[in-house]
Design a protein that fits this description.
Strand order of the largest sheet: 1-2-3
Structural class: mainly alpha
Strand content: 5-15%
Order of helices and strands: EHEEHHHHHHH
Largest sheet: 3 strands, mixed
Distance between the termini: 33 Å
Number of helices: 8
Shape: flat
Radius of gyration: 21 Å
């Protein structure tokens, strides 16, 4: 999200460094299997759209960020809290929004039950399975319905 890097063979590195966008970093894969930096990538954080970051955050994450921004806890009816927080989130600079997103991602944890549920789903449904908050009973019902009605062979 912050930078792009091209990884190439050592013999091709200079040629690629000459033709790719100067913002793109260049790494080579050494004979020992490690990466060696030829050119550092330039950051792209200033081009982050706070609205896009907002749409990637979970409710607790954006409420926490907005609460810190306004200096008090956000207490709004559930029907308008997302719209309110979305408006306030537009006041964040791209760098602030980026920092909030990185911090939120680092704090997220995936419990074992979620991992088992998501890996039991067909690949095409895994993102949906991860993003949809379901209880244990709801997860079992969903898996059962897929087995019986759709005919998927689930793990």
């Amino acid at each position: 999200m912050t930078a792009f890097v091209l990884v190439t063979h050592p013999r091709c590195a200079e040629n690629y460094a000459d033709i790719v966008d100067p913002r793109v970093g260049v790494l080579v894969l050494t004979e020992r299997g490690s990466l060696q930096q030829i050119r550092e990538p330039l950051t792209n954080r200033n081009n982050v759209a706070p609205s896009t970051i907002f749409s990637c955050l979970q409710k607790a994450e954006y409420v926490d960020a907005v609460s810190k921004k306004v200096g008090e806890p956000v207490v709004k009816p559930s029907g308008i809290i997302q719209a309110y927080c979305g408006q306030v989130f537009q006041e964040f600079t791209p760098l602030e929004a980026h920092a909030i997103f990185v911090s939120a991602l680092r704090k997220r944890k995936t419990d074992g039950e979620t991992v088992r549920f998501v890996t039991a789903l067909p690949e095409s449904l895994r993102v949906l399975g991860y993003a949809t908050p379901l209880s244990g009973r709801q997860r079992e019902t969903a898996l059962s319905a897929l087995r019986e009605n759709v005919g998927f062979q689930l793990v």
